[in-house]
Design brief:
The protein is an alpha/beta fold. Helix content is 35%, strand content 11%. The protein is built from five helices and three strands. The N and C termini lie close together (9 Å).
């Protein structure tokens, strides 16, 4: 795993299009538990299964680690709706988050969506 249980992921992304314009239900679903998302999908309460799947992934991630978002394209309110914390700039996020750990370790993944980490 790239992060230890209870670690913090600082996600830095411009998101000029905002939060998943083509999947508007993500703002409602992402903050829910995986079980609740699944229940809503199976009950037919969700019209966008792709958005629900994306929300499920983030919900499972948040059950293990804290997710912090730094983005000019996503507001603090939207980030909190997704279940993320939000900072206005990267340095503030790093400074505040590493101060919460006794011996913090920082890793950087450039072009992270295109990577498959191989942790040894």
């Amino acid at each position: 795993m790239v992060l230890r249980e209870g670690g913090t992921l600082i996600l830095l992304t411009p998101c000029p299009e905002g939060v998943a314009r083509t999947h508007p239900e993500v703002l409602e679903l992402a903050r829910l538990t995986p079980e609740e998302i699944d229940r809503r999908v199976r009950s037919g309460l969700v019209s966008d299964p792709v958005g629900a799947a994306n929300s499920m992934v983030w919900s499972k991630i948040r059950s293990r680690i804290k997710v912090v978002l730094v983005s000019e394209g996503i507001s603090e309110q939207e980030a909190r709706s997704l279940g993320f914390e939000w900072y206005g700039n990267l340095q503030e996020a790093i400074d505040r988050e590493i101060s919460k750990f006794e011996k913090p370790r920082v890793g950087v993944m450039r072009n992270a969506p295109e990577l498959l980490p191989n942790v040894k």
